[in-house]
Amino acid sequence: MTLLDKLVPRTLLVRTFLLVSLLIFVCVASWLTLYALAEREPRARQLAQLAVSVVNLTNAALVAADPDKRLNLLRDLAESEGVRLYPAEPTDRVKALPDTFFFRTMFETVRSELGPTTRFAGSVNGQRGIWVSFSIDDSDEDIYWLMLPGDHAKNDYPWHWLSWGSVSLALALLVAWLIVSRVTRPLRALVDAAREVGRGRHPEPISERGAVELQQLAEAFNRMSRDLKRIETERSGVLAGISHDLRTPLARLRLEAELSIHDGSARQAVIDDIEQLDTIIAQFLDYARGDSQEHAVLTDVNALVDQTIGAMSRSKPTAQITLGEVPASMIRPRALVRALVNLLENARKYGSEPIAVETRVDHGEVLIDFLDRGPGIPETEFERVKRPFTRLENARTDAGGTGLGLAIVERIARLHEGKLELLTRDGGGLIARLRLPLVLAAQNDPENKKASS
């Protein structure tokens, strides 16, 4: 996963909200830019008309005024309007105005009114302002600089509009969040329900409200959930009936073999075949039944492992048990016992002694390892052998089986939100690791909540 993938939000809610927010910000920025561009030219022409008017009025006042009173007139203009007038000298230090669209528009407008020889400056002899040159009576001799205060070119920022715009933007983002969360809320409910179905459970029907598309999606999901529940019920009923119908004649065959077959080896061979058929039927039932209806309870995992493996070791070769520090965890006991039995039988059937069973806690997970010294399984086949009715072409031994043992364990692991791992053991053999989450409190389990309520 790259750094960009880590920074990008993963939830649809956040992604959609960020996209909508980005769209709103782009729209607001575009409108502000368009407003700035739209008001810039009129403001430049307005300043140009002001400069032309001041120049014309000043020129007319100077021409009409008595020469002895011109100095007082210039002083009054400077004090009341901030307009200053200086005769242009060849030694003046002139600094040009910025070459921007605003000032170019102003230059064009002023020159169209006062003539093409009009000059402009941003500073004359160190005095900053907007300087415009003109001549009295259109003569080329008496040329003056007229300075307008630089404030006329400034654009006062509309802070009150900015505050209203910020409030509007905040309201738009809030509404966007409400809209997006309303759209994604049914999707979150659908994800939770789909996760429950994936664990083999049957969640309550999700609400079929909202937009038409979401209603159709919820309706289709609820129909699928009902169909899966019905199919599972029918399958369990059929298998239970088949089991009953098969086990009854198998029991009669065993009794008949024990009473009628006098040859001891032949009798034992028939009994072994009958027991194998009975085991196959039991595995079919275990795989079909599932354990989704069993509630998780706080269970001493070590005690359960010790009791289950110990009971099985009394009738067959003993497995060495090593129990680590494992606190009580939320477990479905019957399902876990079934998984332990299948893992031990798999190690006995396909592996070789010594067989060891170990428990420990690692990074918040309960690990239950079954270790054997058999021929092992190629790493490329680890995932395939966990599928139902799958056996290796070159089995670790020629032992028979249905290919359901690891599939049953895999299903039970998923039911606990864990997983079954197959690992190559150092020195030869196989490690079958049951990895389950360590859940310490009953209220952390959603089904237990329902049961308690």
Automatic annotation (TrEMBL):
Gene3D superfamilies: 1.10.287.130, HAMP domain in histidine kinase, Histidine kinase-like ATPase, C-terminal domain, Sensor histidine kinase RisS, periplasmic domain
Positions of the HAMP domain: 181-233
UniProt xrefs under SMART domains: HAMP, HATPase_c, HisKA
GO cellular component annotations of the record: plasma membrane
InterPro entries (alphabetical): 2C_sensor_his_kinase (IPR050980), HAMP_dom (IPR003660), HATPase_C_sf (IPR036890), HATPase_dom (IPR003594), His_kinase_dom (IPR005467), HisK_dim/P_dom (IPR003661), HisK_dim/P_sf (IPR036097), RisS_PPD (IPR032408)
The keyword Translocase is annotated on this UniProt entry: no
Pfam families tied to this protein: HAMP, HATPase_c, HisKA, RisS_PPD
Cellular compartments annotated: Cell inner membrane
Molecular function GO labels: ATP binding; phosphorelay sensor kinase activity
Catalytic activity: ATP + protein L-histidine = ADP + protein N-phospho-L-histidine
Positions of the Histidine kinase domain: 241-440
Membrane topology listed for this record: Multi-pass membrane protein
Keywords: ATP-binding, Cell inner membrane, Cell membrane, Kinase, Membrane, Nucleotide-binding, Phosphoprotein, Transferase, Transmembrane, Transmembrane helix, Two-component regulatory system
TM stretches of this protein: 12-35, 161-180
The EC number(s) this enzyme carries: 2.7.13.3
UniProt xrefs under PANTHER family: SENSOR HISTIDINE KINASE ENVZ (PTHR44936:SF5), SENSOR PROTEIN CREC (PTHR44936)
Designated name of the protein: histidine kinase
